[in-house]
Amino acid sequence: MTKYPACQHKLRVALLAAFPSSQGPSCDEITQARIPYLDAFIEECVRVSLIAVGATRTAVVDTQILSHFIPRGTEVYFTFGGAGYLKPPLPVSEEKRSSSSQKNNGRTGSWPPNTLGVFDPERWISEDTGDFNPQAGPLHIFGLGIRGCWGKKLAYLEMRIMVALLVLAFSFEGIPEELAGFEGQVKLTHEPRSCYVRLREL
Predict the structure, then answer these.
(1) Number of C-beta neighbours around residue 172 at 10 A
(2) What is the domain count for the chain?
(3) Helices 152-169 & 5-18, crossing angle to 10 degrees?
(4) Global confidence as pTM
(5) Could you tell me which of 37, 47, 121, 161 has the fewest CB atoms within 10 Å of its CB?
(6) Residues near 13 by Cβ (< 8 Å), separated by ≥ 6?
(7) How far is residue 80's CA from residue 55's CA, in Å, rounded to a whole number?
(8) pLDDT higher than 90, residue 42
(9) Is the pLDDT of residue 189 over 80?
Protein backbone atom coordinates (compact mmCIF):
# COMPACT_ATOMS: atom_id res chain seq x y z
CA MET A 1 0.00 0.00 0.00
CA THR A 2 2.71 2.47 0.95
CA LYS A 3 5.12 1.54 -1.83
CA TYR A 4 2.55 1.84 -4.63
CA PRO A 5 0.25 4.79 -3.82
CA ALA A 6 -1.18 4.90 -7.36
CA CYS A 7 -2.38 1.29 -6.99
CA GLN A 8 -3.78 2.09 -3.55
CA HIS A 9 -5.67 5.07 -5.00
CA LYS A 10 -7.07 3.03 -7.90
CA LEU A 11 -8.20 0.32 -5.48
CA ARG A 12 -9.95 2.89 -3.28
CA VAL A 13 -11.71 4.42 -6.29
CA ALA A 14 -12.95 0.96 -7.33
CA LEU A 15 -14.17 0.23 -3.80
CA LEU A 16 -15.96 3.57 -3.47
CA ALA A 17 -17.67 2.96 -6.80
CA ALA A 18 -18.90 -0.41 -5.54
CA PHE A 19 -19.84 0.85 -2.06
CA PRO A 20 -20.91 4.52 -2.28
CA SER A 21 -22.68 4.52 1.11
CA SER A 22 -20.85 6.35 3.90
CA GLN A 23 -21.89 3.56 6.28
CA GLY A 24 -19.33 1.18 4.82
CA PRO A 25 -20.07 -2.24 3.34
CA SER A 26 -21.01 -5.35 5.25
CA CYS A 27 -18.97 -8.55 4.94
CA ASP A 28 -21.74 -10.03 2.80
CA GLU A 29 -21.63 -7.05 0.46
CA ILE A 30 -17.84 -7.29 0.14
CA THR A 31 -17.87 -11.00 -0.60
CA GLN A 32 -20.67 -10.75 -3.17
CA ALA A 33 -19.56 -7.60 -5.02
CA ARG A 34 -17.88 -7.86 -8.42
CA ILE A 35 -14.74 -5.71 -8.13
CA PRO A 36 -12.10 -6.95 -10.59
CA TYR A 37 -9.41 -4.57 -9.39
CA LEU A 38 -9.80 -5.75 -5.77
CA ASP A 39 -9.33 -9.38 -6.84
CA ALA A 40 -6.40 -8.40 -9.07
CA PHE A 41 -4.77 -6.37 -6.29
CA ILE A 42 -5.00 -9.29 -3.85
CA GLU A 43 -3.68 -11.76 -6.43
CA GLU A 44 -0.71 -9.53 -7.19
CA CYS A 45 0.00 -9.14 -3.46
CA VAL A 46 0.02 -12.94 -3.14
CA ARG A 47 2.31 -13.29 -6.19
CA VAL A 48 4.86 -10.68 -5.12
CA SER A 49 4.87 -11.38 -1.37
CA LEU A 50 5.62 -15.09 -1.82
CA ILE A 51 3.48 -16.13 1.13
CA ALA A 52 4.88 -19.63 0.67
CA VAL A 53 8.38 -20.21 -0.68
CA GLY A 54 7.81 -23.60 -2.26
CA ALA A 55 6.24 -27.03 -2.11
CA THR A 56 7.48 -30.58 -2.22
CA ARG A 57 6.00 -33.61 -3.92
CA THR A 58 7.14 -37.22 -3.71
CA ALA A 59 7.42 -39.04 -7.01
CA VAL A 60 5.15 -42.08 -6.70
CA VAL A 61 6.50 -43.66 -9.90
CA ASP A 62 9.72 -43.42 -11.89
CA THR A 63 9.33 -40.37 -14.10
CA GLN A 64 11.15 -37.65 -15.98
CA ILE A 65 11.24 -33.89 -15.60
CA LEU A 66 12.68 -32.04 -18.59
CA SER A 67 14.43 -35.25 -19.71
CA HIS A 68 15.99 -35.81 -16.26
CA PHE A 69 15.22 -39.18 -14.69
CA ILE A 70 13.45 -38.94 -11.31
CA PRO A 71 13.27 -42.27 -9.46
CA ARG A 72 10.22 -43.24 -7.43
CA GLY A 73 10.40 -41.92 -3.85
CA THR A 74 12.39 -38.80 -4.75
CA GLU A 75 11.32 -35.55 -3.06
CA VAL A 76 10.92 -32.89 -5.76
CA TYR A 77 11.00 -29.27 -4.54
CA PHE A 78 9.18 -26.52 -6.43
CA THR A 79 10.24 -22.97 -5.62
CA PHE A 80 7.72 -20.14 -6.01
CA GLY A 81 10.03 -17.14 -6.12
CA GLY A 82 12.51 -18.06 -8.78
CA ALA A 83 12.63 -17.95 -12.53
CA GLY A 84 9.24 -17.51 -14.14
CA TYR A 85 7.60 -15.86 -11.12
CA LEU A 86 9.54 -12.73 -10.19
CA LYS A 87 12.41 -13.17 -12.64
CA PRO A 88 12.55 -14.12 -16.32
CA PRO A 89 12.06 -17.86 -16.93
CA LEU A 90 14.96 -20.12 -17.73
CA PRO A 91 15.13 -21.16 -21.38
CA VAL A 92 13.90 -24.73 -21.85
CA SER A 93 13.95 -26.57 -25.13
CA GLU A 94 10.40 -27.56 -26.06
CA GLU A 95 11.44 -31.12 -27.00
CA LYS A 96 12.56 -31.69 -23.39
CA ARG A 97 9.04 -31.12 -22.15
CA SER A 98 6.65 -34.02 -21.71
CA SER A 99 3.82 -34.48 -24.20
CA SER A 100 1.27 -33.47 -21.54
CA SER A 101 3.26 -30.29 -20.83
CA GLN A 102 3.39 -29.46 -24.53
CA LYS A 103 -0.33 -30.16 -24.86
CA ASN A 104 -1.16 -27.73 -22.03
CA ASN A 105 1.23 -25.03 -23.19
CA GLY A 106 -0.65 -21.73 -23.18
CA ARG A 107 -3.36 -22.92 -20.79
CA THR A 108 -2.06 -20.38 -18.30
CA GLY A 109 -1.11 -16.96 -19.61
CA SER A 110 2.31 -15.38 -19.40
CA TRP A 111 3.65 -11.86 -19.08
CA PRO A 112 6.65 -10.10 -20.62
CA PRO A 113 9.69 -11.40 -18.68
CA ASN A 114 10.99 -7.91 -17.92
CA THR A 115 7.76 -7.07 -16.00
CA LEU A 116 7.78 -10.02 -13.59
CA GLY A 117 9.54 -8.13 -10.78
CA VAL A 118 7.09 -5.22 -10.97
CA PHE A 119 3.98 -4.95 -8.78
CA ASP A 120 1.18 -4.53 -11.30
CA PRO A 121 -2.39 -5.63 -10.42
CA GLU A 122 -3.48 -4.82 -13.99
CA ARG A 123 -1.70 -7.98 -15.21
CA TRP A 124 -4.61 -10.01 -13.77
CA ILE A 125 -7.33 -8.07 -15.61
CA SER A 126 -8.45 -9.14 -19.07
CA GLU A 127 -7.93 -6.42 -21.67
CA ASP A 128 -10.93 -7.75 -23.61
CA THR A 129 -13.53 -7.97 -20.85
CA GLY A 130 -12.16 -5.99 -17.91
CA ASP A 131 -12.75 -9.06 -15.73
CA PHE A 132 -10.34 -10.55 -13.22
CA ASN A 133 -8.56 -13.53 -14.76
CA PRO A 134 -6.89 -15.89 -12.23
CA GLN A 135 -5.34 -17.80 -15.16
CA ALA A 136 -3.55 -14.73 -16.53
CA GLY A 137 -0.17 -16.07 -15.45
CA PRO A 138 1.61 -18.60 -13.24
CA LEU A 139 0.79 -18.64 -9.53
CA HIS A 140 1.03 -21.85 -7.51
CA ILE A 141 1.59 -20.53 -3.99
CA PHE A 142 -1.49 -22.33 -2.68
CA GLY A 143 -0.85 -25.38 -4.82
CA LEU A 144 -3.19 -26.71 -7.48
CA GLY A 145 -5.83 -29.37 -7.93
CA ILE A 146 -6.55 -32.02 -5.34
CA ARG A 147 -3.25 -31.32 -3.58
CA GLY A 148 -3.96 -27.59 -3.27
CA CYS A 149 -4.22 -25.85 0.09
CA TRP A 150 -7.59 -26.56 1.64
CA GLY A 151 -7.52 -23.13 3.33
CA LYS A 152 -7.11 -21.14 0.11
CA LYS A 153 -10.75 -20.08 -0.19
CA LEU A 154 -10.85 -18.95 3.44
CA ALA A 155 -7.56 -17.04 3.03
CA TYR A 156 -8.85 -15.21 -0.06
CA LEU A 157 -12.15 -14.45 1.66
CA GLU A 158 -10.35 -12.97 4.68
CA MET A 159 -8.00 -10.95 2.46
CA ARG A 160 -10.90 -9.58 0.42
CA ILE A 161 -12.76 -8.39 3.52
CA MET A 162 -9.71 -6.98 5.33
CA VAL A 163 -8.20 -5.20 2.32
CA ALA A 164 -11.55 -3.63 1.40
CA LEU A 165 -12.29 -2.42 4.93
CA LEU A 166 -8.78 -1.10 5.55
CA VAL A 167 -8.53 0.77 2.25
CA LEU A 168 -11.95 2.35 2.77
CA ALA A 169 -11.09 3.42 6.32
CA PHE A 170 -7.45 4.52 6.00
CA SER A 171 -4.93 5.99 3.63
CA PHE A 172 -1.60 4.20 3.88
CA GLU A 173 0.88 7.08 3.84
CA GLY A 174 4.53 6.88 2.82
CA ILE A 175 7.08 5.69 5.35
CA PRO A 176 10.87 6.13 5.56
CA GLU A 177 12.78 3.92 3.13
CA GLU A 178 14.59 2.09 5.95
CA LEU A 179 11.21 0.84 7.23
CA ALA A 180 9.72 0.09 3.82
CA GLY A 181 11.70 -2.98 2.74
CA PHE A 182 10.22 -6.26 1.59
CA GLU A 183 12.79 -8.52 3.26
CA GLY A 184 11.27 -11.68 4.67
CA GLN A 185 12.03 -14.65 6.84
CA VAL A 186 10.97 -18.22 6.26
CA LYS A 187 9.00 -19.84 9.06
CA LEU A 188 5.90 -21.92 8.34
CA THR A 189 5.25 -19.26 5.72
CA HIS A 190 7.26 -16.38 4.28
CA GLU A 191 6.82 -13.59 6.84
CA PRO A 192 7.95 -9.95 6.67
CA ARG A 193 10.91 -8.96 8.82
CA SER A 194 9.35 -5.57 9.44
CA CYS A 195 5.82 -4.37 8.83
CA TYR A 196 5.30 -0.67 9.43
CA VAL A 197 2.43 1.55 8.36
CA ARG A 198 1.54 5.21 8.76
CA LEU A 199 -2.22 5.54 8.63
CA ARG A 200 -4.41 8.55 7.95
CA GLU A 201 -8.06 8.05 8.81
CA LEU A 202 -10.42 8.86 5.95
Answers:
(1) 18
(2) 1
(3) 90
(4) 0.86
(5) 161
(6) none
(7) 8
(8) yes
(9) no
* 3-state SS track over the chain: CCCCHHHHHHHHHHHHHHCCCCCCCCHHHHHHCCCHHHHHHHHHHHHHHCCCCEEEEECCCCEEECCEEECCCCEEEEECCCECCCECCCCCCHHHCCHHHHHCCCCCCCCCHHHCCCCCHHHHECCCCCCECCCCCCCCCCCCHHHCCCCHHHHHHHHHHHHHHHHHHEEEECCCHHHCCCCEEECCCEEECCCCCEEEEC
Q: Is the pLDDT of residue 39 over 80?
A: yes
- For residue 13, give the CATH number of its domain: 1.10.630.10
User: What is the domain range of residue 17?
Assistant: 5-201
Q: How far is CA 56 from CA 59, 73, 143, 198, in A?
A: 10, 12, 10, 38
Q: What is the pLDDT of residues 113-172, one digit of tens each?
A: 889 989 999 999 999 999 999 989 888 888 777 778 889 999 999 999 999 999 999 999
Q: Which of 194, 146, 126, 156 is nearest to 42 (CA)?
A: 156
Q: What is the residue type of 149?
A: C
The neighbouring-strand residues paired with 154 are none
